[in-house]
Amino acid sequence: MIIDHPLLGPRDSAEFTYMGDARLIDRPDPDAGTAAQDFYEYGYLRDNPAGWHDELWFHEAGDRSWLVITRNTLTHEISKVQLARDVARSRGRSK
Amino acid sequence: MRYSGFKVIKEALTGHKGWTPAWRDPAPQAHYDIVIIGGGGHGLATAYYLAKQYQQKRIAVLEKGWIGGGNVGRNTTIIRSNYLLDGNEPFYEFSLKLWEGLEQDFNYNAMISQRGILNLIHSDAQRDAFIRRGNAMILNGADAEMLTTEQIKARYPFLNTDDARFPIKGGLAQHRGGTVRHDAVAWGYARGADGHGVDIIQNCEVTGFRIENGKCLGVETSKGFIGAGKVGCAVAGSSSRLMSKADMRLPMESHVLQAFVSEGLKPVLPGVVTFGAGHFYCSQSDKGGLVFGGDLDGYNSYAQRGNLPVVEDVCEGGMAIFPAFGRARLLRMWGGIMDMSMDGSPIIDRTHIDGLYFNGGWCYGGFKATPASGFCFAHLLATDAPHPTATAYRFDRFEKGLMIDEKGMGNQPNLH
Fold first, then answer.
1. Which of B69, B108, B186, B281 has the most CB atoms around it within 10 Å of its CB?
2. Would the CB atoms of B252 and A75 count as touching at under 8 Å?
């Protein structure tokens, strides 16, 4: 697979480490009353869809950036690559 | 029809006119006591033991394609019980014992060959870890033996034990481990189950569950609704897809694992050997092909095919330990979809929905588990209680912190 890095252009996926479902960006509130259940679901349960999947890839052998990649798990086709920090900020993280 | 040497000779002398299909091709009935979803090794074994061991009646196995077309026909055929943790080792040893009696039990030649498995050791720390593992195996009734470099040299004279980078310091052997003709496992269980009255229904895809008031009443399929007293799911890599139809999210990701076979060679590798300094393992099939594999590709996939970086990585591992094999050409490579759980261990448990049972999360260790998985799942379906060797394989272990994490990797499925 070739990953079209937003800053570096097309890179071999072997340079990256797969870090799982991009929903991991949305860390639960540790002060919420339901925190124990929320963190169990956050840590252990996954949608694991067959089809389009937003996922985190870490450019370990590159610029160390984290990406959110929209990829089809049935075909390995990649439709969208974003910097994870942009995605996180757009969701109100790291204000 | 019972297979035997006498039967083969009789048929040979009478023009082979007496053979009949090994299993029927029935139309689905409107209702079964127990419906198993998934006609792979685990589903067929479950149906077989339900009918034979637990005397259950009116059982169906539903398979969306043809039986044995998934991971039971895609693995590297190795059986072993060299696990470390208490939750796992008794279960896998139970499985190995079932393998040892399987062919006589289901009257089918699965070419079970206890040629032994050898885990090579390349460092002092690895020796300590493998001695601990061997002791855990012996404590649970399995066989394990630490071999010296000289003993390994006698069995595998072509191994370079003095390699500067990866010297071989010894090895952990399980002599009862070995290989099996994997397709024959699916066929043997299918034939055995069919002989006990189980309906094996192929080309029948489950499209949904009918759940009312928290109870599963049956399954919607491509061949219409099929009612069921109990529904057992054993669909490996498709577990998350199937259980999402019951609004369940599972503690697993589906990953692609590749496997490889070389052209046929004269006998060169008598047992199964694993490289300890990289992820590579190899055995030689009875046809002569070197069967080998290594790591997952590492990303979620349902594609049943992998990518080239892992091919390169696996072959590099092979070249590091067996440089001579570099002269053999690769004949075939393929991928299977692994239900990678969050701790690397499986689940055989009831769900929160009454009448709906789940078997999955086998990661890439499902083949060796086939007999015990079927036996324990049958036990659960028949008695509503876990089999004594499978009590740890619960859904709620992640919530309760009771993980069975052989490699100590945490909730990162692609590292197990």
1. B186
2. no
Which residues from chain A sit within 8 angstroms of residue B303, using beta carbons? 73-76
Report the C-alpha gap between B83 and B144 in whole angstroms: 11
Give the nearest chain A residue to B240 (CA atoms).
A48
Residues B381 and B315 in one domain: no
Q: Is 0.90 surpassed by the pTM of this model?
A: yes
pLDDT of B291-344, one tens digit each?
999 999 999 999 999 999 999 999 999 999 999 999 999 999 999 999 999 999
pLDDT tens sequence for chain A (95 residues): 999 999 999 999 999 999 999 999 999 999 999 999 999 999 999 999 999 999 999 999 999 999 999 999 999 999 999 999 999 999 888 75
User: Cβ contact (<8 Å) for B302 and A41?
Assistant: no
Domain count, chain A: 1
The range of the structural domain enclosing residue A68 comes to: 2-90
Instruction: Tell me which residue of B187, B200, B218, B181 sits closest to B47, measured CA to CA.
Output: B200
The CA-atom distances, in angstroms, between B316 and each of B166, B170, B263 are: 13, 22, 18
Q: Rounded to whole angstroms, how far apart are CA atoms B321 and B319?
A: 6
Taking residue A57's Cβ as centre, other Cβ atoms within 10 Å add up to: 26
The beta strands (E) that lie in A1-95 are given as: 2-5, 9-12, 17-21, 52-58, 66-72, 78-83
Rounded Cα gap, residues B410 and B297, in angstroms = 18
- Among B244, B307, B399, select the one facing A40 at the smallest CB separation: B399
CATH code, domain carrying B285: 3.30.9.10
pLDDT tens by residue, B123-180? 999 999 999 999 999 999 999 999 999 999 999 999 999 999 999 999 999 999 999 9
Q: Does B412 reach chain A within 8 Å, measured CB to CB?
A: yes
Q: Is A74 on the interface with B (CB under 8 A)?
A: yes
Give the nearest partner residue to A18 out of B299, B303, B411, using CB atoms.
B299
The answer to whether A20 faces chain B, any CB pair under 8 Å, is yes
A49 part of contact set with chain B, CB < 8 Å: yes
B223 in any annotated domain: yes
A19 → chain B, closest CA residue: B412
